[in-house]
Amino acid sequence: MGAHLRRVLSVHVLIVALLGTMQATSPAAATRTATITFRPEAWTYVSSAAKNESHWKENAALPVGIAGTGGEGSDSADVRRAFFTHDVSALKGLKIVEARLTLLRPDPDCANHVSGFELGQTGPIDRQTDWKHQPEWIRGLATVPSPSPSPSPSPSPLLSPLLSPLPCSPDWPYVLDVPPAVAEAASGDTGKITFCVRSESEDKPQEHLVFENDPELRITYEYTTPNPPPSEPWVSMHSLPATAWGYVESQHRNVPHWNEDGLASIGASDRGRVTRSFFEFDLALPAESHVLSTMVQVERADVCRVGERPIEVWETGPVDATTTWHRQPEWRTRLSTLAWGSCVASAGPLIFDLTDAVAAARAAGRTTLTLGLRSQDEHDPLGAYVFRHDPVLRVYSVPPLGPPTRLMTDGASRIRPDDTPMPPVPCAAGSDRPYLFFVPRPVAFVTGYGPLNVHWQWETVDGRPVDEEIAPVLPSSGLVASNKYVGPDGTYRWRVRAEDSYQRVSEWSPWCEYAVDTTAPDRPATVTGDPYGGPSPKGGPGVPGEFRFGPNGVTDVAGYRYKMDSDPWREVAADADGTATLTWTPSAPGFHMLAVVSVDRAGNLAVQPTFFPFVVAPPA
Questions:
Q1: Are 424 and 410 a contacting pair, CB within 8 Å?
Q2: pLDDT tens-digit profile of 569-617?
Q3: HEC states along 467-514?
Q4: With contact defined as beta carbons under 8 Å apart, do 582 and 619 qualify?
Q5: Which of 231, 273, 477, 578 could make a disulfide contact with 551, Cβ separation 3.0–4.6 Å?
Q6: How far apart are CA 510 and CA 446, in angstroms?
Q7: Percent helix, strand, coil in the chain (nearest 5)?
Q8: How is residue 132 annotated by DSSP?
């Protein structure tokens, strides 16, 4: 086989292999994983020594096991069990890959051996949960046995193998795998799961355990992203069959053979008849596509013979139904010469490299390409060949560069006051632009064929240039973020485009605006209450109170964060005048403390909270 044919076949095989890999590894949607951490929304413990006492959401650690000298039922024993509930409803419909619950001990005393314990799933808990009103035990999830008297060389197999093996270290966490229970709870009606921790042996005197009341539930889940870019270079293949064909013969010089159902042939037959064949292709490709390579594949319909003569492939002028031996098109440019050095067992297809010819035709504005095949020696019967009349032109190209999509103003690396990451903000402008308490960076999704760059630009909203950046994309397609943070306080806009190594650029994305405000409200909120407020008892259980929050002269207050006693922080939006009203109904008499912090539209918290104490009068 000649060197030229070997080179053509090698390129063809490599491209086919590449496309096969892309098809095998690039499904319609890509599956990815993400990890999220949940803290309990409620917790409590129950005590056998105080069977009617609730410890709902107390700001204290959770005891587990037996305190005293006797087992359950003994007058001197006090058996404790701990409960906590996580809300995992946000994962409904998602596949949970991993779920790990981490229990921490705050007790620094390691003088005595601690007991083993069980982790189980129970029914829900509430303010009425006490020893007499415990939730139903649904199933056991894990058992951690009592530690040996001396430190073991490795932790229990239920625990993370990366953690310290010292069982008496107060910092040593118990990491328990609970994915099936969490997955079932996430898909349930409430989306919540309640765990219970109880001693391994509640009928024997032993030291008890104490756990932190906010165990972390860390969940890894799968999600799909639509239409992901392939992991390999972004190559498109267009298979373009011949739109017309014909052949001419020397013995019937005025007879056309146009789009017949028979076979194509070239060269001299045993009787001296010489034929030549022509194939026309429509170069129906996107104008912006960059062609990497082009090949034509012609299927043989004869048998390979030893000593076959070379075949020439030319670009010719157009052909039609009047083309004959006497009316042949112009033979313009010889594109390739294919020669066998020896005959192989199977004749196989003929493959010709037409990359330069297709590029030249497109550059000249031609929309069709006509190929002429003829034998290099038209007097030798070993130069005669027979083909099928349906060759295919295979064009491997880079598709046009589309404008970047999924434009976002990124806040994922910034933390809000409640210690959760800021979600990305979709591209917006005008009155919809986001107000931020940090300087963000832009994020966009680009696709292309590497090497690829992204070109970012920033301006003020009135069009004054501020900054720009050109950075490579690795890999050549995907979600990319700028390395720059353009600020400080002010209102800005950004846009982005893709640029590839073929001097092509995509369209610019739309302008995305954002405003940065890092100045917190400099005055505390005002708080008034009706009927509650001041040191004297007012109202009573069941009597609603109305608390009005005011901006105290701050002009951009968008809402308020408030906290009643030991309840978690909550938020309320402000009206157009910057005020907000909270209605709260006490359930018991006594002293209460309301804390309020104003929040501006960028998310900045006021530098000073407002505390509003009041006393609820006992029932009349």
A1: yes
A2: 999 999 999 999 999 999 999 999 999 999 998 888 998 999 999 999 9
A3: EEEEEECCCCCEEEECCCCCCCCEEEEEEEEEEECCCCECCCCCCEEE
A4: no
A5: 578
A6: 14
A7: 10, 45, 50
A8: G
